[in-house]
Amino acid sequence: MPSLRMSDRAILHLARAWCFLRHPAICMRTFNHSGMLPHPARPSTYVDKFLWRKIFDHNPFFATACDKLASKAYALSTCPELRSAKVLWSGRDAREIPSELLAGDVVVKANHGCRWNIMIRNGRVDKAKLTRRTSRWMRRRYGRKFGEWGYKGAERKVFVEEMLLEDGQPIRLEYKFHVSNGMTAYVYAARRDEHGNEVSFRS
Fold it and tell me: How far apart are CA 180 and CA 9, in angstroms?
Protein backbone atom coordinates (compact mmCIF):
# COMPACT_ATOMS: atom_id res chain seq x y z
CA MET A 1 0.00 0.00 0.00
CA PRO A 2 1.21 3.58 -0.61
CA SER A 3 2.54 5.51 2.38
CA LEU A 4 0.11 7.77 4.22
CA ARG A 5 0.43 11.13 5.87
CA MET A 6 0.65 11.11 9.64
CA SER A 7 -2.82 12.65 9.92
CA ASP A 8 -4.30 9.94 7.71
CA ARG A 9 -2.62 7.23 9.76
CA ALA A 10 -4.00 8.76 12.94
CA ILE A 11 -7.52 8.75 11.52
CA LEU A 12 -7.19 5.12 10.46
CA HIS A 13 -5.89 4.15 13.91
CA LEU A 14 -8.88 5.85 15.48
CA ALA A 15 -11.23 4.07 13.06
CA ARG A 16 -9.58 0.75 13.86
CA ALA A 17 -9.97 1.40 17.60
CA TRP A 18 -13.64 2.26 17.03
CA CYS A 19 -14.12 -1.10 15.25
CA PHE A 20 -12.57 -2.96 18.19
CA LEU A 21 -14.69 -1.06 20.73
CA ARG A 22 -17.93 -1.22 18.75
CA HIS A 23 -17.56 -4.84 17.56
CA PRO A 24 -15.26 -6.57 20.07
CA ALA A 25 -16.69 -10.07 19.65
CA ILE A 26 -16.35 -10.38 15.88
CA CYS A 27 -12.94 -8.65 15.92
CA MET A 28 -11.71 -11.13 18.52
CA ARG A 29 -13.12 -14.09 16.61
CA THR A 30 -11.41 -12.82 13.46
CA PHE A 31 -8.13 -12.68 15.39
CA ASN A 32 -8.67 -16.18 16.81
CA HIS A 33 -9.38 -17.48 13.31
CA SER A 34 -6.43 -15.86 11.55
CA GLY A 35 -3.88 -15.32 14.33
CA MET A 36 -3.41 -11.75 13.07
CA LEU A 37 -4.71 -8.55 14.61
CA PRO A 38 -7.32 -7.38 12.07
CA HIS A 39 -7.35 -3.93 10.49
CA PRO A 40 -10.88 -3.44 9.12
CA ALA A 41 -10.34 0.32 8.74
CA ARG A 42 -7.62 -0.29 6.14
CA PRO A 43 -8.17 -3.86 4.94
CA SER A 44 -5.42 -5.57 3.00
CA THR A 45 -5.75 -9.27 3.88
CA TYR A 46 -8.57 -11.66 3.07
CA VAL A 47 -9.83 -11.74 6.67
CA ASP A 48 -9.58 -7.95 6.99
CA LYS A 49 -11.80 -7.52 3.95
CA PHE A 50 -14.39 -9.96 5.27
CA LEU A 51 -14.44 -8.09 8.57
CA TRP A 52 -14.71 -4.74 6.78
CA ARG A 53 -17.72 -6.04 4.88
CA LYS A 54 -19.41 -7.25 8.07
CA ILE A 55 -18.97 -3.87 9.77
CA PHE A 56 -19.31 -1.33 6.97
CA ASP A 57 -20.86 -2.86 3.85
CA HIS A 58 -24.55 -3.48 4.50
CA ASN A 59 -25.65 -3.98 0.92
CA PRO A 60 -29.31 -5.13 1.18
CA PHE A 61 -28.68 -7.77 -1.50
CA PHE A 62 -26.63 -9.73 1.03
CA ALA A 63 -29.90 -10.61 2.80
CA THR A 64 -31.07 -12.29 -0.42
CA ALA A 65 -27.74 -14.05 -0.81
CA CYS A 66 -27.99 -15.46 2.73
CA ASP A 67 -31.51 -16.80 2.15
CA LYS A 68 -31.10 -20.15 0.35
CA LEU A 69 -34.54 -20.22 -1.26
CA ALA A 70 -34.50 -16.53 -2.19
CA SER A 71 -30.99 -16.78 -3.67
CA LYS A 72 -32.00 -19.84 -5.68
CA ALA A 73 -35.03 -17.98 -7.05
CA TYR A 74 -32.86 -14.97 -7.89
CA ALA A 75 -30.26 -17.10 -9.68
CA LEU A 76 -32.93 -18.84 -11.77
CA SER A 77 -34.61 -15.54 -12.62
CA THR A 78 -31.27 -14.21 -13.85
CA CYS A 79 -30.21 -17.40 -15.64
CA PRO A 80 -33.28 -19.61 -16.35
CA GLU A 81 -31.18 -22.31 -18.03
CA LEU A 82 -29.15 -22.81 -14.84
CA ARG A 83 -29.31 -26.39 -13.55
CA SER A 84 -30.25 -26.45 -9.90
CA ALA A 85 -31.27 -29.09 -7.35
CA LYS A 86 -35.06 -29.16 -7.11
CA VAL A 87 -36.79 -28.03 -3.93
CA LEU A 88 -39.31 -30.75 -3.10
CA TRP A 89 -40.90 -29.23 0.03
CA SER A 90 -40.52 -26.26 2.36
CA GLY A 91 -42.15 -25.32 5.63
CA ARG A 92 -41.58 -24.51 9.28
CA ASP A 93 -42.13 -27.93 10.86
CA ALA A 94 -40.20 -31.00 9.67
CA ARG A 95 -42.96 -33.23 11.03
CA GLU A 96 -45.05 -32.08 8.06
CA ILE A 97 -42.57 -33.38 5.47
CA PRO A 98 -44.41 -36.06 3.41
CA SER A 99 -43.02 -39.49 4.27
CA GLU A 100 -42.53 -40.41 0.61
CA LEU A 101 -40.01 -37.56 0.22
CA LEU A 102 -37.82 -39.07 2.93
CA ALA A 103 -37.87 -42.53 1.34
CA GLY A 104 -35.07 -41.87 -1.14
CA ASP A 105 -31.97 -39.68 -1.50
CA VAL A 106 -32.63 -36.12 -0.34
CA VAL A 107 -31.10 -33.32 1.71
CA VAL A 108 -32.96 -31.54 4.48
CA LYS A 109 -31.68 -27.98 4.93
CA ALA A 110 -32.28 -24.85 6.95
CA ASN A 111 -33.04 -21.87 4.74
CA HIS A 112 -31.54 -19.36 7.18
CA GLY A 113 -28.21 -20.97 8.11
CA CYS A 114 -24.96 -22.39 6.83
CA ARG A 115 -24.00 -26.09 7.06
CA TRP A 116 -27.32 -26.90 8.67
CA ASN A 117 -27.95 -29.93 6.47
CA ILE A 118 -29.10 -33.50 6.99
CA MET A 119 -28.19 -35.96 4.25
CA ILE A 120 -30.64 -38.84 3.80
CA ARG A 121 -29.51 -41.85 1.77
CA ASN A 122 -31.85 -44.62 0.62
CA GLY A 123 -34.55 -43.48 3.04
CA ARG A 124 -32.44 -44.16 6.12
CA VAL A 125 -33.54 -41.47 8.56
CA ASP A 126 -34.22 -41.21 12.29
CA LYS A 127 -37.36 -39.05 12.20
CA ALA A 128 -37.23 -38.23 15.92
CA LYS A 129 -33.64 -36.99 15.55
CA LEU A 130 -34.60 -35.11 12.38
CA THR A 131 -37.41 -33.33 14.24
CA ARG A 132 -35.19 -32.40 17.20
CA ARG A 133 -32.42 -31.06 14.99
CA THR A 134 -34.62 -29.03 12.67
CA SER A 135 -36.57 -27.63 15.64
CA ARG A 136 -33.26 -26.41 17.04
CA TRP A 137 -32.50 -24.73 13.71
CA MET A 138 -35.85 -22.95 13.77
CA ARG A 139 -35.16 -21.52 17.22
CA ARG A 140 -31.75 -20.13 16.31
CA ARG A 141 -30.61 -17.12 14.32
CA TYR A 142 -27.52 -18.04 12.37
CA GLY A 143 -24.69 -15.53 11.94
CA ARG A 144 -25.00 -13.56 15.17
CA LYS A 145 -21.79 -15.05 16.59
CA PHE A 146 -19.63 -13.99 13.63
CA GLY A 147 -21.39 -10.75 12.71
CA GLU A 148 -22.95 -12.20 9.55
CA TRP A 149 -25.88 -9.79 9.67
CA GLY A 150 -27.29 -10.84 6.28
CA TYR A 151 -28.77 -14.01 7.76
CA LYS A 152 -31.02 -11.95 10.04
CA GLY A 153 -33.43 -11.28 7.17
CA ALA A 154 -33.54 -14.85 5.87
CA GLU A 155 -36.90 -16.52 6.38
CA ARG A 156 -36.73 -19.29 8.95
CA LYS A 157 -37.71 -22.41 7.04
CA VAL A 158 -36.77 -26.03 6.62
CA PHE A 159 -36.78 -27.45 3.11
CA VAL A 160 -36.15 -30.72 1.32
CA GLU A 161 -33.98 -30.71 -1.78
CA GLU A 162 -33.12 -33.50 -4.18
CA MET A 163 -29.66 -34.97 -3.68
CA LEU A 164 -27.38 -34.56 -6.67
CA LEU A 165 -26.04 -37.98 -7.67
CA GLU A 166 -23.40 -39.28 -10.05
CA ASP A 167 -23.48 -43.00 -10.91
CA GLY A 168 -25.93 -43.51 -8.06
CA GLN A 169 -23.66 -41.86 -5.47
CA PRO A 170 -23.67 -38.32 -4.02
CA ILE A 171 -21.39 -36.04 -6.00
CA ARG A 172 -18.05 -36.34 -4.23
CA LEU A 173 -16.51 -33.02 -5.20
CA GLU A 174 -18.41 -29.75 -4.96
CA TYR A 175 -17.09 -26.44 -6.25
CA LYS A 176 -18.17 -23.05 -4.98
CA PHE A 177 -17.14 -19.96 -6.90
CA HIS A 178 -16.85 -16.83 -4.75
CA VAL A 179 -17.45 -13.77 -6.90
CA SER A 180 -16.48 -10.16 -6.16
CA ASN A 181 -17.64 -7.33 -8.40
CA GLY A 182 -18.53 -9.77 -11.17
CA MET A 183 -15.19 -11.61 -11.10
CA THR A 184 -14.30 -14.94 -9.50
CA ALA A 185 -12.12 -14.17 -6.47
CA TYR A 186 -11.41 -17.77 -5.49
CA VAL A 187 -12.78 -21.29 -5.80
CA TYR A 188 -13.73 -23.46 -2.83
CA ALA A 189 -13.72 -27.22 -3.35
CA ALA A 190 -15.41 -29.53 -0.81
CA ARG A 191 -14.98 -33.29 -0.81
CA ARG A 192 -17.85 -35.42 0.48
CA ASP A 193 -18.15 -38.97 1.79
CA GLU A 194 -20.52 -41.67 0.49
CA HIS A 195 -23.37 -40.16 2.53
CA GLY A 196 -22.88 -36.70 1.05
CA ASN A 197 -21.35 -35.14 4.17
CA GLU A 198 -18.42 -32.75 3.77
CA VAL A 199 -15.16 -34.29 5.00
CA SER A 200 -12.49 -31.93 3.69
CA PHE A 201 -11.97 -28.83 1.59
CA ARG A 202 -9.34 -26.84 -0.21
CA SER A 203 -9.26 -23.42 -1.83
Answer: 27
Q: Is 56 helix (H, G, I), strand (E, B) or coil?
A: helix
Residue 202 in contact with residue 189, Cβ under 8 Å? Answer: yes
Domain ranges of the chain: 6-56, 61-163, 167-203
Question: Which residues, listed in sequence order, are joined to residue 103 by a DSSP beta bridge?
Answer: none
Based on C-alpha coordinates, what's the Rg of the chain?
A: 20
Side-chain half-sphere exposure of 91, counting CA atoms within 13 A: 9
In a 3-state reduction of DSSP, which class is residue 200?
strand
Measured CA to CA, the distance from residue 137 to residue 93 in angstroms comes to: 11
Decide: pTM greater than 0.90. Answer: no
The one-letter code for the residue type at 25 is A
Residue 161: CB atoms within 10 A of its CB come to 20
- Report mean pLDDT in 10-residue bins for the chain, 203 residues: 81 95 92 89 89 93 94 93 93 96 95 92 94 96 89 95 87 81 82 69 52
